[in-house]
Amino acid sequence: MVISDTQSGLAMAIAVAMTESALFPPVVPLVSRNRYFTRKKLLKKLEANGNGARINALLDSMRASSPTRRPTDTEDHNSWILHHPSALNMFEEIMRASKGKQIVVFLDYDGTLSPIVEDPDRAFITTEMREAVRDVAKLFPTAIVSGRCRAKVYNFVRLSELYYAGSHGMDIKGPAKGHTHRKGNQTVLCQPAREFLPMIDEVYKALMENVKYIPGAKVENNKFCLSVHYRCVEEKKWGELGDQVKLVIKDYPQLRLTQGRKVLEIRPTIKWDKGNALEFLLESLGYAESDDVLPVYIGDDRTDEDAFRVLRERGQGLGILVSKTPKETNASYSLQEPSEASYAVPQTFGGVEEAVRTKALE
Ligand SMILES: O=P(O)(O)OC[C@H]1O[C@H](O[C@H]2O[C@H](CO)[C@@H](O)[C@H](O)[C@H]2O)[C@H](O)[C@@H](O)[C@@H]1O
To answer: Which residues form a coiled coil (predicted)?
Structure first.
């Protein structure tokens, strides 16, 4: 069997997830922690102050969350990678860790399965990556967990055998009939923020109106949440953009503002995030309290931290952060970027299949 680099890379990451001794190495202080905490504090302050927070805090936070503004210190990076080793170098430990466990795979979309690009509507998954995900889903229950609207992420991925959790987990749907890994045949569906739909639509329209004068700004309707993109906005206009967003949402205390990669996100205040989505899916699959499950979550953004944290709290499974720069994270392992797949070794799929076979023989 000829295996492409992308397939082996993704599978390698999954395979690494099966490593036992790899689970949750201790969290250690980072050289780059201060900078990270400054950014975190800024956002916390912003969130704590609600919609009336000082606009400077938002602007500072937008600036601080743009890693391209500062080249990564080699020392910082080396220290970080020591504690979050590359998921690609851990193949040896696969078999041992996977023994007797059901692996469940969770994949973020943007920045994980697709590279970050300027136009959010053109963040396509490659054919190779789609094939890799398809292959992984043949072996394990597999879910895509994204900030995007579920329908949009489905249109990119187009694999009906997967679980999809859109709107940061607020819109979950199971695979098409005939593909389910669950016992029983009920459709999995979870939409905990339904009542917010009219409000989100209203705010979407207001945001479109308010930011249309800012060149490069883009508002994306993710159904149960909204994204205001500033990747293509000149930095000197970021303050104005933040101003406009805060102006709109100040009348909606039921909505909160969070941040992603050059994006401001507006979402309901309900306590539901990617971590809850992960737990919901594990429960739907029948693994709520099980010790025999190994959830693997691969993601790149701060919203993925909610899922990494759940894994850490469960003391089960493995988080892999896709990031080129050191970041404070609850993930145990790292990958540099989606295309790092090309560093992987071809025998990985063999390893995954072997692990599955071992399990089947037990
Ligand atoms: O949870 P995810 O699947 O990672 O989605 C998070 C956001 O991803 C998208 O925005 C990001 O990717 C864009 C395309 O590469 C990029 O232009 C943007 O700057 C990034 O923030 C998506 O467009 C958002 O709606 C998602 O919330």
So the answer is: none
